[in-house]
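Record pair follows.
FIRST:
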Amino acid sequence: MSQSSGTTAAGDEAPIAPTEVARLREALALAHATVESSERFSRHGLLMQAFMDGSAQLAWLKDERGRLVWANRHWFEQFGVDESAALDKSDFELFPEAEAQRIRALDLDVLGGHAPRHSIETMIGRDGRELIWRVTRFPFHDAAGQRYVGGLAEDDTERVRQHEVAHRQTITDNLTGLLNRNGFDAQAEPELLRARRRGSSCTLVCIGLDGLGGVNERLGSAASDALISLASMILRKSFRTTDIVARIGDDSFAILAPDSYGEVDVIRRRLQAAVAELSANPILEAQFDFRIGLLHCEPAGSESLAQLLELVDRQMTAAS
């Protein structure tokens, strides 16, 4: 009987241990899963990029140093920069100094917290127009712990403009373009309080146009409207741009002149000149009278604007 040499015959292969087979199978499965995951990530990334590029919102991502890491197509179009020229650049390289400082302060505030921050901001587009945006900034970290600031901005210009127009209509007199009573109250009351806090005085003026009904009867409503419009133009010319001028009734006007200490006589002379100019206008074919009341408002006063208007009205009535 021949003895075995304990070696494998030429051309034979040593069998692979079961544990090594299992390890190789796991490695192959992991590699396959990695490829699938990479392909899936690539597909999802392309879909997400297309989704964000189709959005009307601006979207961007910056690292903690303030450098632009990513932005959607609308962001690059809005600011008129190429992707290759903007990526990895800071706001100080992309925007004017003051604008960059404002943006950086907002980003740092987000990085210092954990919650999104919402704001209304104005931005200048590539066409030079000032746009109003509703902006949301939010912080997050990647798997390596790197901090980022994400941003989304939606153009709110049209809605804000429409709101401003609607608001102006509620506080503006349609005929003269002056403030109406609501607008006068809204602007004059805070100014009166500010003057008192500053320790400065102001003057409240009321003007009544008597005889307006006679003009309407003799010449019609168009003539009386023209007279009121003429009076408003003369009053605008007679007072400073800082004075608050309003038409508070059909035939009455009110003016609050802040920081007018010692100027009551000056205001009175201006008004007398305005009345003389109005009276000399050829549109007036009816007898016309003017009632004028002036009230010097001391800083120590405590009356509300409505109470002061009543005092001036009583003054005008007593003088008539």
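SECOND:
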Amino acid sequence: MNDLEALVQGAQADFAAAPNPAELENAKARYLGKSGRVTELLKGLGALTPDEKKRRGAEINQAKTRIETALQAAREALAEAELAAQLHAEALDVTLPGRGRGVAGLHPVSRTIARIEAIFASMGFDVAEGPEIETDWMNFTALNSPENHPARSMQDTFYVDVNDAQGKPLNLRTHTSPMQVRYARNHAARHAGVEPMPEIRVIAPGRTYRVDSDATHSPMFHQCEGLWIGENISFKDLKFVFSEFVRQFFETDDFDVRFRPSFFPFTEPSAEIDIAFRSGPLAGKWLEVAGSGQVHPNVVRNFGIDPERYIGFAFGMGPDRLAMLRYGVNDLRLFFENDLRFLSQFK
């Protein structure tokens, strides 16, 4: 074996033994670098005769070509090994089920409000929505709670640093009853001169605000107010409407309804509405679910309607509390904490 053949085989062995690209480049430098063995052989050609230089140069170039070929083969082998390792580490089992995206669902309070709207719509009630920032007149005075009325202290709320046309600060509405006023006034104006005026049947669901917070109250909560005004609308109609709502909402006839005397400035007489289920985990326990009453003549007058001719009832209930009863939730705060462990149950 001559010196060039030994050189080639040595290079081939070193290249094949290199464990990574960095070691391979170090091996290349030993043979093909500026101070490499092949380079040193080429530098030694200057001491030879022209004929020897030609022969020896050709032999060295052939050896160099073989070494470069071995280097390229080693580079490709390392690249293939690296790719194979990467593919193995990142391998996908195509037989596994896809991860996909989680299926979203409506919040339980949103589901409850939608259910309330559908039930009352089936009984001929419109659904009205309006501003959550209200004027003092709409939120209090029009509903028979003038300034300094003691009933206002029961509805302590949040105020906006902007005044209305009367110079009073705007407030975050404490109930959705202002929508009864807005809807009824628009209805009266739209049907001015029509005899008799068509009945008003409307519910007003939405967010409301009061300075209150505990396990059963939240500073922001939901209400759904209802209003039915006509020439001969009485408590009898209220009892029928609300009993039918409870029957459809809870999908049962196994309950009792009672009206318990109470006070609200915007109704007279007024009553709390309680229900009691005859069976199940809440059997025999009276549960307050709404406030109600015959609309006060002053409020009807503020509607722009003659209280001597038209009469009716109003009620207000909390969708949050109804959702708690329907789904067996014992703490109102769960609805607002955004805990997916809780919310995922309602998908």
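COMMENT: The chain has eleven helices and ten strands.
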